[in-house]
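User: My collaborator sent over this chain with a note saying "see what the structure looks like." That's all I know about it. Can you take a look?
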Amino acid sequence: MKYRLNTTNYHTFSVFGVNNLPPRSYFIPYPTRADADAVTPKRKRYASPKVECLNGVWDFKFYPLPAELPAELDTDAVAFDKLDVPSCWQFRGYDRPFYVNYRYQFPYKPPVIPTTDKVGRVFSWLGCDTGLRPRWITPEEEYNFVGVYRRFFDVADADKRIVISFLGVASCLDLYLNGKYIGYAEGSHNTAEFDLSGKVQPGQNELLAVVHRWCNGTYLENQDMFRNNGIFRDVLLRTEEPADFRDIDAKTAKKDGRYTLTLTAETHADTTVTFTLQGHGLTRTATVPTQDKTARAVFADLDVTEWNAENPVLYDLYYETAAGCVKEKLGFRTVEIRGDVFLLNGSKIKFKGVNHHDTDPRNGYTLSPDDIERDLLTCKQFNIDTVRTSHYPPDPLLLELADELGIYLVDENDIETHGTFAMQFPPTYNSISDDPKWKAHYLDRIAHLYQRDKIHGNTSVIMWSLGNEAGGFYNTDAMYDYLKARSDLPVHYESAIHCKKQAYDVGSEMYPTVQMVHDVGEKRRKQTRLNDRPYFMCEYAHAMGVGPGNTEAYWQEVYRYDSLMGGCVWEMVDHAVLHDDGRYTYGGDHGEWEHDGNFCVDGLFYPDRTPSTGAYIMRFIYRPFRVTHCGGDRFELFNTTAFSRGRYTLQFLWNDGSGTELTPDTAPLSKETVTLPMGSAVDGTLLLTVKTLDTKTGRCVAEEQPIVTLAVPVAPAVKALPVGAGVQDGRFALQRDGKLLLTADTEGTLLYRASTDNDTDVFFRRPLTPWQNQRSEVVSCKGIANGYEVVTRLTNGKGRYTVTDTYQGTDKGVLVTSVLHRERGSQTVPRFGKVFRLDEIFDTVTYFARSGESYCDMKDQFCVQQVTCPVSAMTEPNIRPQESGNRMDCTTATLTDGQLKVTFEAVGKPFELAVKPYTDRALTGMKHREDEVRTGTYVTVQAFQQGIGTGACGPAIMPEFCYELKQDCTLQFLIRVEEV
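Assistant: Without extra context I'll predict from the sequence alone. Here is the result:
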């Protein structure tokens, strides 16, 4: 079949929609109420006889050279490939995955985009691959690729109204049917619908979709993510009767403790509509004839149980005509800003949130219903109650499941123009958002967001968001006015901070310092519109690589001031590409001519949703109860929830085996003090572990240790070194039966660490690199009473230091005393540790310390306890290998090969433990997981290591978590060897 293709829509600025239907609520009709009742939200769109899902294998033709796409396309002459829909073509071998954060993939000349020629010369001054410097580059073989999709479908009755719905297509869609043009749509994450009535034919129909890599609308979709293309969400074919619904709506209002519910329905022809509200002992029904195809029913004086994320009570709504039934679920709740306080159902609330992208390592933007449910269930399991849909509307199923499971949503518009900042001088976010020529484009996108999701504005959606990092404010004002004319919900938009507007209904900011947050609470910020309204950290605690560090400090401020609403960690899941051989790749690994490296690998969870340490940090910080020891037998209990009272049982477990269980009746966001029986120290160690149990789900939702008193022995009396212990060439070694068992690593002393992702400053520099240029020189080595003394000079890019090590015998093993002295240079030292090598066969570690990865500014998420694990479990599987696996508060660590065990024991105070299967030096050069080749077992006993912070995109390490070498630092510990 032949098609005359439209060749101008995608690059004609005035065109962003042709023949697409007006936006409406997302819903799925069923023939009867019984049919609608029989399905779950996950199955709803796939089980209705009134809706056919066109997912599956489509014909596909990729045009890497867009000029080769003929103006007249004869599908009978095209050699189509096969491609699954939904999917992203870069994840199916067409073109390549391409990750970039700040920049567009073409020259910045809004609204001009490449058409059929090469991209041309591109200017930028900001990027992880280039740092901060002007750059002009002409990428080779980079075009505005085109994908052509074909699908056949059958129609039994061509006289019926047939509507096709595309839930997500990037970047745009020209649609054709049976040789005729249907229409055009932009807005990748918005629903595009077209009326096929009168254009379908009985029997088989040929559907053709032409998708361009970029369109004018791409200027509004510059989000931090892999830039993918294709039909990436479901495609639905709807058969509609005249009496079926065109749109539905629901609005709730509360007055004097009772709710009023207004239900509205639009039909294709005048008919009679029956509205029903049902659930929890309540039933209201009204049958209303339409006027001008619209019917409305008002149910007043409703005594209902209010919805909140802690207790997500939903009621059933039925919209029925003779042609069918639509079933929705609705929660009753209020959102109000009173002064500078955000209230939900009249109560103060703190939102414990995360930013969520649609990302899958095998499928790009495409998430299945099971994937979406898994992500929200994971949030619940890790005490996350809020999701910002960064930075676009999600699949509508996510909203239905958020209503059902209990998740607050900040529903974000599909607008980001970050490239305006990175690709022009002077840099500004405001170029497009403050240009009136773009107003209609902005209004089109906010209308699609609101109209699709408006029913959920009664339940899970607690704020609308105008977009992300697009500045303002002419067009953002227009979107704000559109929303306020239709919805009482507050409007969020962080990027207003980059223009005179400063803020809309809530103040918002990305990656503020703790001091900045504190100053908001104290009403001291220079941006005055942050002081007089609720304040929301839409992005904070950048979870890239190891970390985020120092997150607790933010929540001390959030709980201190009523105006601080909480915030959303950046972000939930690492973005990466999973290959058949198990490798993960990130930006720059696919031949991208510009990229932002592994900046996409910035989630609390790995791409397969395995939790990283960051996930456990947030689970801990977002815990529903906090317990503080006030001294003696007094403890403060803090209920951090907004609505739960008497729901949580606290188990107080002492390390002597005693314990107490308490189900407190502490009011939400309130504190009380209780007295409890104290345990007794065991060999000088006193530990109190508090487990928080959710009586509703039976899960343990948090563990904390408000009391940690560790017994650490003093140095024992010295005597001669044991047989086999000695120093050669300045390196300590232990031999057993004539075989080398343990030796100081070639570097011996570590003042550096392999850089974490957060060891980066705002200029993309690695501040630890000078420390990594460490050179060691043995100054002297001599025998002393009962042992040896070795003096080593360490020189690096930050200064010169000497380390004096003594090795002496005791009844408990070899006493190691190491003294670090600064000769000149930096007083702030990242690390001080002694590293030893064992053979790979020493693979089992038993330690008494924090039970998981911990650093001085992120340690309380793991309790002190004894752990046994393999060496491989002592480091984290970061997509980009980096320093990881530190264990704080360690008193003993033993490694064994099954026959011998080597023990490191603290003297004087606990040490920090690191056990790695490779050297720290080797780690500095690793880029991917497959680089982590084992060369032995390396044990580092440390006096200190600096904190982590969130410097990759936020505040660096706070001074209180850095070590100032104001005087010599001494590290002491014992090493002993025993048979198992």
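A starting point for your reply to your collaborator: The radius of gyration is 31 Å.
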